[in-house]
Amino acid sequence: MRVLAAMSGGVDSAVAAARAVAEGHDVVGVHLALSAKPGTLRTGSRGCCTVEDAHDARRAADILGIPFYVWDFAERFTEEVVETFVGEYAAGRTPNPCVTCNEKIKFEALLDKAMALGFDAVCTGHYARLSVVDGVPELRRSADEDKDQSYVLASLTPEQLRHAMFPLGGSRKPDVREEAAERGLSVASKPDSHDICFIPDGDTKKFLEKRLGERPGDLVDAETGAVLGKHTGVHGFTVGQRKGLGIDAPAADGKPRYVLSLEPVSGAVKVGSATELAVSHIAADRPIWPGEHPLAGPAECVVQVRAHGGTAPAVAEAVGDEVTIELREPLRGVAPGQVVVLYREDSGAGDLVLGSAKIASTA
């Protein structure tokens, strides 16, 4: 097959490309330039998609003996990922930009261009297992539970998954680093990237305030309705947040307060106790079903609402373009805008992704 290897400049994508070459595929490496001003992205151990990463990717491609190109996706990245991120926070929702990047950039923009150029598949260094059985994709958790990335890939469509390759799905990270060293790849010991690549200093609140300005509102006790303080914008908060609330007086019971909900129209940020964060019902929309068909009636499953968050057993049901989820064990810190991923527990083979949807409301 003709395979386009997306090479971020890290160890995972380099080894994934190497394995594609070893399997006999005709491989071409490509690095995505995602910022018109690369210096504004994080560098070093916290980097992602920077000039430094482009150089590392090129060196890895040279060692593998494959052609290498840099494609400029900066404008689309800004529109699809950065502006969406800002807009979601302004609307009182909590987005995951990595999910959006995978969906809109790596497996929409990149795959579309790859297909137009005659490639059969796009290969990445994601940790997830993928197979296609009788033309139907099966996306599963990776063998390395600590590095599993099936959550951020669960928003991909069946057609996108048919043209995807994840060579690292059955591997563990230490083994990938060891393989990189054996292949002479200089990125073998390169630290993993962290946090949000387009926020250089990691200060999300400051980044959003620069984009959205101040939108003053009240900090409100959810139980009594009492105004506890002022804030400069709901975009500075997320559901479940405890620190940085700007409330001088402690709660009546002396326990910490948490953000319970955000109301962008009124500007109210409602706070309360940790027990009030518990969620037993999730309503979600815009579902995507990797296996092409929605759930047939109520289905037992396991749900995950954050890339590195915990899971909970649940019963999910698809009704039209909506998914309702009843949790058998409450979850905390579940916010509108997050993606909920449904899994079927499958011992040995890795949990199967049944589908994903965007959280609209909770109760």
Automatic annotation (TrEMBL):
GO cellular-component term (any): cytoplasm
Catalytic activity reported: S-sulfanyl-L-cysteinyl-[protein] + uridine(34) in tRNA + AH2 + ATP = 2-thiouridine(34) in tRNA + L-cysteinyl-[protein] + A + AMP + diphosphate + H(+)
UniProt-annotated site: Interaction with tRNA, residues: H126, Q338
SUPFAM superfamilies to which the protein is assigned, alphabetical: Adenine nucleotide alpha hydrolases-like
InterPro entries linked: MnmA-like, MnmA-like_C, MnmA-like_central, MnmA-like_central_sf, Rossmann-like_a/b/a_fold
EC id: 2.8.1.13
UniProt similarity note: Belongs to the MnmA/TRMU family.
Name of the protein in its database record: tRNA-specific 2-thiouridylase MnmA
Originating gene: mnmA
